[in-house]
Amino acid sequence: MIRVDALWLAVEPLDLRAGTEAALARVVTVFGAARPHHAYLFTNKRANRIKVLVHDGIGVWLAARRLNAGKFVWPRDAATTLSVTRAQFDALVLGLPWQRVGEAGIIRVL
Q1: How many Å apart are CA 12 and CA 62, to the nearest integer?
Q2: Is 89 left (phi over 0), alpha (psi -120 to 50) or beta?
Q3: Which ranges of 1-110 would DSSP assign to H, the alpha helix?
Q4: Which tens digit of pLDDT belongs to each residue from 9-52?
Q5: Which of 39, 45, 96, 98 could cross-link 13 (Cys pair, CB 3.0–4.6 Å)?
């Protein structure tokens, strides 16, 4: 498996027709650099698809996920980027309200 130490979410949507090079260019533009063992998440305007770019220390991986029904919960009025925990990431990719998941999976906000 690929080691991921940090997960970052880009608030602004990305044209998900973009391939690896375009996604990497967007990571450098938005986050300043693609750091080893970091994952960068993007969504499209409709928030029904996400792409994750991971730098594994040697190269980059690009993965995509699409919801057949519903939307991913994506902030629209936050800062340009957000850091998310592994528990929040796990909820996000399932389409769940990940902002409500706290440390160790504890839900603190209803």
Answers
A1: 18
A2: alpha
A3: 20-31, 86-93
A4: 998 899 989 899 999 999 999 999 999 999 999 999 999 999 99
A5: 45
41 close to 51: Cβ distance less than 8 angstroms:
yes
- Side chain identity, residue 74: W
| Letter string b/e over residues 45-79, b meaning 16 or more CB atoms within 10 A of that residue's CB | eebbbbbbbbbeeeeeebeebeeeeeebbbeeeee
CA distance 96 to 59: 30
Residue 19 to residue 89: CA distance in whole angstroms: 22
- Contact between residue 34 and residue 55 where contact means Cβ atoms under 8 Å apart: yes
Q: What is the pTM of this model?
A: 0.84
- CA 53 to chain CA mean position, Å: 8
Calculate the average pLDDT of the chain: 87
Q: Beta strand 6-10 with 81-84: parallel, antiparallel or unpaired?
A: antiparallel
Show Cβ contacts of residue 98 under 8 Å, excluding neighbours closer than 6 positions.
Answer: 73, 84, 88, 89, 91, 92
